[in-house]
Amino acid sequence: MEVIKTGIEGVVVIEPRVFTDSRGYFFESYSKREFDEKVAKVDFVQDNESRSSRGVMRGLHFQRPPFTQAKLVRCVRGAVLDVAVDLRAGSPTYGRHVAVELTEDNRRQFFVPRGFAHGFAVLSETAVFQYKCDNFYSPSSEGGISILDPSLGIDWRIDPSEAILSDKDLRHPPLSDFTTPFSY
User: Fold this and answer.
1) Domains observed in the chain
2) Which residues are known catalytic residues?
């Protein structure tokens, strides 16, 4: 696997080595040994999957301590724009984001460390999205910031008037009204 650094330390894009022939393709989607060596030592404990339609935006979500989560995400069908926003107090990149297009064709994965909000927008007719978490989900610890906050400067590649969001995601505060529970 190739690890591609981004503008925020610890947030990386992972590109697998894909072997193709007349029968199709094969790639190793996850190797703990290689991930620990090249990215970070993380013990993933839960895998999740969602299916969404074009225009659906999910996020920007996080889990408060002590249930903070790192995530390894990928799109196995369709295409999404995936985003991580740095929420770590004292970080030189606080409030900045990294966006990457994940598709079934590029097979890329995106590692989002603890202390970041995470979200995605569906760019294809449908998308199946999978992610690994290094901590179990805790409903009482969930939180978020507004996925449509203009101060974040995220180009979601979807017209906000056509975005499909949950009621819960529509209620998340903008970054300016947010007090972070995360440290750098």
Assistant:
1) 43-176 (2.60.120.10)
2) 61, 131
